[in-house]
Amino acid sequence: MMESKWVWFIIIGVMLSVLEDSLTDACLKHERVALLHLKPFFNHFNYLYKWDEEKGWDCCRWEGVECNTTTTTTTTGRLIRLSLNSTRGYNMGDWYLNASLFHPFKGLNSLNLSYNSIAGFLENQGIEKLSRLDNLETLDLSYNSWRNNTLFHMGALSSLKTLNFRGNLVEGNLLHIQEAFSSVKTLSLQGQLSDPDNELVKVGNGNFLPYLSPKVQLKAISGTFPVWSLENNTKLQELVLKGNSFRGHLSFSSAPNFDLSLMDMSDNKLQGQIPSNNMFNFSTFEMLFLSKNAFEGNIPPCLNGMKDLSFLDLSNNHLSGRVPQELIMNSSFSILRLSNNNLCGNVVPAILKANKLRNLYLDGNNFSGEMPNVDVSTFRFPTSLQEIDLSNNKLYGKLPRWIGNISYLERLALSNNNFEGCIPMEFCNLNTLEFLQLSQNNLSGSIPSCFNPPNIEHVHLHGNRLSGPLSFALYNSSSLVTLDLGGNNLTGTIPKWIGTLSSLSVLFLRANHLQGRIPI
Ligand SMILES: *[C@@H]1O[C@H](CO)[C@@H](O)[C@H](O)[C@H]1NC(C)=O
Ligand SMILES: *[C@@H]1O[C@H](CO)[C@@H](O)[C@H](O)[C@H]1NC(C)=O
Ligand SMILES: *[C@@H]1O[C@H](CO)[C@@H](O)[C@H](O)[C@H]1NC(C)=O
Ligand SMILES: *[C@@H]1O[C@H](CO)[C@@H](O)[C@H](O)[C@H]1NC(C)=O
Ligand SMILES: *[C@@H]1O[C@H](CO)[C@@H](O)[C@H](O)[C@H]1NC(C)=O
Ligand SMILES: *[C@@H]1O[C@H](CO)[C@@H](O)[C@H](O)[C@H]1NC(C)=O
Ligand SMILES: *[C@@H]1O[C@H](CO)[C@@H](O)[C@H](O)[C@H]1NC(C)=O
Ligand SMILES: *[C@@H]1O[C@H](CO)[C@@H](O)[C@H](O)[C@H]1NC(C)=O
Ligand SMILES: *[C@@H]1O[C@H](CO)[C@@H](O)[C@H](O)[C@H]1NC(C)=O
Ligand SMILES: *[C@@H]1O[C@H](CO)[C@@H](O)[C@H](O)[C@H]1NC(C)=O
Ligand SMILES: *[C@@H]1O[C@H](CO)[C@@H](O)[C@H](O)[C@H]1NC(C)=O
Ligand SMILES: *[C@H]1O[C@@H](CO)[C@H](O)[C@@H](O)[C@@H]1NC(C)=O
Q1: How many Å lie between the centroid of ligand 4 and the Cα of residue 105?
Q2: Contact, 339 vs 389, CB < 8 A?
Q3: From which residue to which does the signal peptide run (predicted)?
Q4: SS3 assignment, position 433
């Protein structure tokens, strides 16, 4: 008995060691050994204790390790992704990494070293040491203590496509490091750690996040607009220099001739007019963000000539004058944001003919005009609209009934204008509405009792002259989070159904003539 048991052990042992390097789902031995050499440097707080101790010899099943299951040869290696992010622990003190430890991973495609307090490589090693990894396409070095010199040598990584360098200790004038980015397709040099992330994402439905995620990021960069970043870099597709301190005019010394589809210069200190000559005719632009600068003057009509431009953000500048009508009517935009400037004129006729616009933000300007009431049975509506923000302007007149025909409207903000009259019954047709803000107008009459959009989340109606009892409007709105009806002339008792709104967390009813208690 004893003897045969030992024989089995030996046979299994031999089989394992023979199969080990050829099993399709198992890691290669030399890669496992290399991982075990790395482990002590990244195992603070015992993050990686499971690696060999619990998960056994198949390193492809270890935390943060991903293998290519279709690789059969040992020439490229099997390990393709290594995520060592946050494995060192915060505040462990800066340290220097031995780049040679990564050399065995010949097939490595993606390496994540973020949040590890790495200050650099060991003496006589530069980032170029990693250039032996000729399959490396994604490198995340964010939130460490890398300094300037790392960036200077980034060019050595010829296979690199995406580099995240956010939150490191790089500063100074960028002019010297341009050659470092010759192969990187996405260049993003973003501002301080404390900057709120991608404020723009909030305006839409979040779909733009992937475009905006910073890929290369530096701290506190200043100077004039870095024309060089475009001129000798014809492969560049996205330029994100958001949240820095670039000053002066946005200007180009020669007719642009490149592949740029996204430019984000928002949150800088650029000033002067937005260039209007053909120097700014980027026919390849799909997204252009110039918000939070000090641009002044009129919006140049040439922006309308960028036929593929779908997202334009000029908000939070000092732009004045009228908006070229075509910008709203005939452009290819799906998102147009001109909020918080000094723009004026009657924008209503253009809005009525908005063709492809999905999100329109014109809030915080000096726009005037009256919303006309038209024959709802024949009028062609701007049906593409999903979000409209016209708040903080000087619009007036009655709320038009045709708003109820904008079938996919999700957000409607008209607060702080001079609208008057009733909330039309047709608003009850807005079945996709999530956000309604009509506060600080002169609206009167009662809230239509049929108003119960199934997905409504926020309703702001304060500061009007709405009257009558709270009938059955919103009584069924389990998604309602905010209900602000303060400062109106509502009467009657507070209905019991308010206590049954399961998501409600903000309720303002003050400054009305309502009676009774708020049911809890
Ligand atoms: C996996 O390996 C196969 C064969 O070597 C290769 O064609 C493929 O590109 C590899 N996949 C990745 C994601 O590296
Ligand atoms: C590392 O990053 C990946 C991807 O974001 C994440 O899923 C994982 O939890 C992170 N690891 C640690 C230890 O935080
Ligand atoms: C790297 O890890 C960080 C932290 O977990 C994560 O936010 C980031 O998305 C990861 N990067 C990649 C390229 O997966
Ligand atoms: C760096 O790692 C390599 C490979 O493991 C090793 O041969 C070398 O001695 C290490 N260098 C230092 C300075 O520790
Ligand atoms: C672009 O390249 C040309 C030719 O190599 C060179 O003369 C010029 O200075 C470069 N421009 C910039 C801004 O680096
Ligand atoms: C912009 O460039 C496109 C093609 O590159 C051209 O057809 C168009 O006429 C130009 N527009 C202006 C205003 O220069
Ligand atoms: C804008 O579109 C309207 C029809 O929708 C058309 O009549 C008008 O000519 C267009 N204007 C321009 C400048 O293309
Ligand atoms: C707003 O426009 C009106 C004319 O419609 C003008 O009288 C007023 O000065 C403008 N206000 C601002 C702040 O530009
Ligand atoms: C607009 O909505 C009304 C109902 O409020 C409907 O009678 C009318 O046919 C709609 N018009 C169009 C063009 O869809
Ligand atoms: C509000 O509308 C009423 C008429 O319905 C009018 O008398 C009043 O002046 C308006 N108030 C303001 C502030 O426009
Ligand atoms: C509120 O409604 C009452 C009648 O219900 C009316 O007498 C009063 O003038 C209204 N107040 C305001 C500010 O509209
Ligand atoms: C990066 O290092 C700092 C301090 O070490 C210098 O002040 C910067 O000028 C330098 N930046 C560049 C681009 O060389």
Answers
A1: 15
A2: yes
A3: 1-24
A4: coil
Taking the model in full, what pTM does it have? 0.64
Ligand 7 center to 330 CA (angstroms): 6
Other beta carbons within 10 angstroms of residue 56's beta carbon come to: 12
Phi, psi angle pair for 394, to nearest 5°: -120, 40
The string of pLDDT tens digits covering residues 218-232 is 333 656 666 655 665
Q: Which residues line ligand 1 (CB under 6 A)?
A: 68, 70-71, 76, 80, 109
DSSP annotation of 153 reads T
Q: Residue whose CA is closest, atom 8 of ligand 5?
A: 232
Kindly report the protein residue whose alpha carbon is nearest to atom 8 of ligand 11.
489
Ligand 1 atom having least distance to the Cα of 68:
1
Among protein residues, the one whose CA lies closest to atom 12 of ligand 10: 442
Task: Render 400-464 in DSSP notation, one character per residue.
Answer: PGGGGG-TT--EEE--SSEEEE---GGGGG-TT--EEE--SSEEEEPPPTT---TT--EEE--SS
Three-state helix/strand/coil letters over 312-366? EECCCCEEEEECCHHHHHCCCCCEEECCCCEEEEECHHHHHCCCCCCEEECCCCE
Give the closest ligand to the alpha carbon of residue 446. 11
User: Cβ neighbours of residue 23 under 8 Å, at least 6 residues apart?
Assistant: none
- Looking at residue 236, what is its pLDDT? 64
Q: Which atom of ligand 3 is nearest to the CA of 115?
A: 4
Nearest atom within ligand 10 for CA of residue 421: 5
Name the closest-CA residue to atom 1, ligand 7.
Answer: 330
Cα 223 off chain centre by: 26
- DSSP-derived secondary structure letter, 216: S
Residue nearest to atom 12 of ligand 5 (CA): 228
CATH number of 396-520: 3.80.10.10
